[in-house]
């Protein structure tokens, strides 16, 4: 094997020509895109099916421009001539980061992508990401062009992702990825709900031969968080008419601890802050078989099982005594939340060409996620006080969702004498059925104070919800004259729970010459409220208080004045410039503005008599809570605000040849991003539904800018990749945990998280033609976010602003990677 294949560059995604050096058609050797159409450049150069998988980076760079399938219905569209900004990141680039899942790899490679420093409860397990500073569920995720189902685990705690149930990228094996196309543009008119910030399209491998194995082992500078990831990918021929590609993967990561000295114990023994412990096994298959020369049967699917454990806050001996649990835990205890999870997604379809002049694609996709919630090393304090007994292990309930999607896509090119190129006409329809359910836990998990660590779901919380979605779209694209291209798209969707949505998009690009071009888009979009946002409920009670989340569309919420949830709507504008001032220098500049109305937030708060009335409508009796109505409170999701996000993406790449001293591919990319919150709604009591903390979660927790720059040097068997990431500042409003303002919902500490630099370094060597070894580190300097003051860190747990979407609190990660190709 040649060194360029197994060590793809750790480079930033570039929208011009799709990518960085070495990413073009790096692995999809079948010569087919996700629609089954053979990849061609505008000169009709075909990528042949049996080209050897192992190729040098220079050979890859010399290949035809890569055809894209995201953001366009034109089968000949290339990344270099894309109307909208699009980044292509090769699968080898993802795996070369040393990360064992897709989300963490993308954060290293794309300045437009960020993630929370550290989530809480089940939200810390889900691989949710933000594109252009928006919520995770405002980015649509596709696999081979088909809508991917979302997780069932809702982010329940206060954070920028609160209420989201996004696609969990950790459920897709990283070894199965050929490349990822990131459309950084609103695309609801093309794909439907959720595509407000953009689209991430995961294209699976389809090579029909070869076996590749990879092992990654590493850990953090703190000496914890050992992570191992082993994967295998193999391709096979199905006779002379098809291919079968298989991937299998195992991942384990130990928990990390990022806490300080607990003042109650004088020891650093609280494990609540840090990454959870996760063990994951996943398999994937992708196949295609030509039933005839014009008709192909295709299918792909994934199945993943994951066990996750998250440590809750330490119950010190003093706290245990106050709760009356000293007889059960004389030395204190720390509950552990568990979430065994099964996730699956399968697609089967037929596609064909030249049926009365039309290309067509008929497919059905079913996917789902089932989470079982548990808790061990725990107790129900009230049950123990009353009976002298409490179990230490609890079944807390379950979350499940399923999505069944059926698509028909039809396309044809029509020659018209007054147009420079054929008019590409595409149209089609979609039918989808969504389901969501919450299962109740065992009685002692929710009785009075319930299980410590995470209270179980009550029978009142249990729900089974479903909805039907029907959609139709049309798309026209052509070159009006030689250098001017236009694309028009329109879509209509009907949701039987929230009504209709109509969206449209117009895109255009004009190339003045081969050195400079301009492009721009204007579009409308929407995001339908998820079934989880409409139906999620959680009730927490004790002898002294009652609080919880009530379902937004329930009689209880309507008793508080909730009108129910309606879709978020958006208007997107973008304008860009493509520059090629030198033969090997390519620059892109793309600015954007995204207006979102009726954003869904967790903000319908009520307390006292109004909360008691709402719970009564939900069938919950609150009369026993110390007889004090002021001890009763509740909240629900509501369309609480509007936002405007403005930003700028700049990318550049350049190649240098130093002869016998090797070659260097340089790259740089930066994202500037800012969000303003306005038009804040009010509760039934007349108060704003968002306080200062919630506003900052939506507007200033994302870095104001993120820069990635560096390069990769190749000489003989050696490869060295160095990249610097600069995270811009973020600001937060943190809750006081001590002092006169302790736990205030109106007064907060204004935290400024200063900019941080992170260095990623990898050195690789081709030991044998079949074996490549690499030693690397992400954040080799062991940088951390800014520390927060002690009066905002409960028992010294949250030493850093865990709600920020800046660099990780985990510190430096160092790894050894081995790649073997047979």
TrEMBL record:
Pfam families xrefs: Plug, TonB_dep_Rec_b-barrel
Domain TonB-dependent receptor plug residues, every copy: 82-199
Organism: Gluconobacter cerevisiae
Family: Belongs to the TonB-dependent receptor family.
PROSITE patterns per the UniProt record, alphabetical: TONB_DEPENDENT_REC_3
Topology term for the membrane: Multi-pass membrane protein
Compositionally skewed regions (Polar residues) per UniProt: 266-275
UniProt-annotated stretches for the region Disordered: 254-275
Keywords carried by this UniProt record: Cell outer membrane, Membrane, Receptor, Signal, TonB box, Transmembrane, Transmembrane beta strand, Transport
Localization, UniProt: Cell outer membrane
Keyword Protease: no
Signal peptide: 1-25
Record domain TonB-dependent receptor-like beta-barrel: where: 298-780
Subcellular location, principal: membrane
Name assigned to this protein: TonB-dependent receptor
UniProt cross-references to PANTHER family, sorted A to Z: PTHR47234, SECRETIN_TONB SHORT N-TERMINAL DOMAIN-CONTAINING PROTEIN
